[in-house]
Design goal:
Elements (H helix, E strand, L loop, with lengths): L3 E14 L2 E14 L3 E5 L6 H8 L7 E6 L2 E2 L5 H11 E4 L11 H12 L4 H14 L15 H13 L5 E5 L7 H16 L3 E5 L3 H4 L4 E6 L2 E7 L9 H15 L2
Parallel strand pairs: 3-8, 3-9, 6-7, 7-8
Antiparallel strand pairs: 1-2, 1-4, 4-5, 9-10
This protein binds adenosine-5'-triphosphate and magnesium ion.
């Protein structure tokens, strides 16, 4: 039977700016089963990034509950949340953050060393393998300022996967990429998913979403609908999946 790895109940998030409140998430009930690869789509400003941040405990919810791996995030203090994120979660942010004083390789291996559950050799080998798979071996020793936005985005993904997280939150992980690099990223995400990482990804790309197992559509902070595509096992299914998704997105008002 499927195990729920992440669940929100009546999740609300309100931002207050200049005395005006903006109810960005409105009673979101959401479930993610272990091993699932789910994409979130929806118009710009519909709350996709906010949903990712509140589900992962990166940002505080206004009300409701989030249960991750059997634990209620709302009851956790800062230190507990930091430990949880380091050991069990990986993140690719829409805004790409890396430490400016470290080269790309050092940025990638840092969470591995911090988690301290594998030897340095194992962590370095995994970093090199991930960089190779994503076509960015040659920038390992570069400064952050010396790489392109697309290379940085892929480096952020390597860092997010370094500890083989239980769950990966990825906010538009192919947003800065051309179609070849996008395909490499999707291949690596599917690899990580096969190795056991549950994935929750925001994307604006139909092509990218079509290779996920399920697509959730968000409008004005509410889940409007979901489409179950199932696991993609064969590249030959791509065209059919893309067509199915496109028709459904038309119905959703995309
Ligand atoms: N830190 C913040 N403070 C105040 N308002 C915010 C903040 N972050 C987001 N918002 C508001 O919340 C709403 C949803 O933003 P969010 O970034 O979640 O949208 P999104 O669906 O990810 O959009 P996009 O597709 O453009 O990335 C927007 O109206 C935005 O202005
Ligand atoms: Mg966003």
């Amino acid at each position: 039977m499927a195990t729920t790895v992440l669940e929100s109940k009546e999740l609300c998030k309100t931002y207050i700016v200049d005395k005006y409140s903006n109810n960005v998430l409105q009673n979101v009930d959401f479930k993610l089963e272990e091993g699932e690869f789910t994409a979130i789509m929806g118009p710009s400003g519909s709350g996709k990034s906010t949903l990712l941040y509140t589900l992962s405990g990166m940002d505080q919810m206004t009300s409701g509950r989030v249960i991750f791996d059997g634990e209620d995030l709302s009851g956790m203090n800062h230190k507990q949340l930091t430990g949880l994120r380091l050991h069990k979660m990986g993140f690719v942010f829409q805004q790409m953050y890396m430490l400016k004083k470290l080269c790309i390789m050092d940025n990638i291996i840092l969470p591995g060393y911090q988690a301290n559950t594998k030897s340095k050799d194992e962590i370095n080998d995994r970093a090199r393998k991930l960089m190779h798979n994503l076509g960015i071996d040659e920038i390992a020793l570069n400064e952050i300022s010396e790489v392109s936005g697309g290379q940085l985005q892929r480096a952020c993904l390597c860092r997010a996967l370094i500890n083989s997280p239980k769950i990966l939150f990825a906010d538009e992980p192919t947003g800065a990429l051309n179609s070849k690099a996008s395909a490499e990223v999707m291949k690596e995400l599917r690899n990580a998913n096969k190795e056991g990482t549950t994935i929750l990804m925001v994307t604006h790309s139909e092509k990218v979403a079509a290779s996920s197992d399920r697509v959730v559509y968000l409008v004005d902070g509410n889940i409007k609908g979901e489409l179950k595509l199932g696991k993609q096992t064969d590249e030959g299914e791509t065209a059919v999946r893309e067509r199915k998704l496109k028709n459904w997105l038309d119905e959703m008002g995309w």
